[in-house]
Amino acid sequence: MTQTTPTPTFVCVDYEIEGTPLGLDPTQLLVDVFSSNGASLVEHELPVVASFEDPAVAMEASIIGQWRTQREINDPSRRVRIGVHIGDLREAIAVLNCSNGNQIVFSGQVDAFTGGNLDARPMALARIWPDSDPVQLWLSTDSRPDIDGRPLRVPT
Hints:
alpha+beta, 7 strands, 4 helices
């Protein structure tokens, strides 16, 4: 059962670009998916930052957004990177910065608030923001095609 969290769950999106993108920019598609799942959009220099009240809904919207981008836009030169974290936006961006293209990475806080019920595997225990204990980072391993299995981009 999902717990109620008093702080927002941020979904941060960026792209890994190799070469020249061939397809359409997926930003509007992702905005539409997040908005239709109840997100509030946050103005930011990243392509998309969305705030959700429920971490499980945030994860589901992230999976749908990445899956639809892979299926409908299908541009191997521009791959969506997603980071999900509860609480602080700067920390959510740090989670995003650990992801590669075609990966959804989320923090241990998301795993805890969703009762450990997400289809995922633990990837790294890393200190990704200053003055904190290391945080467990998870890779969503749902049924999306082309999940990137590369190691996360964790600071050393």
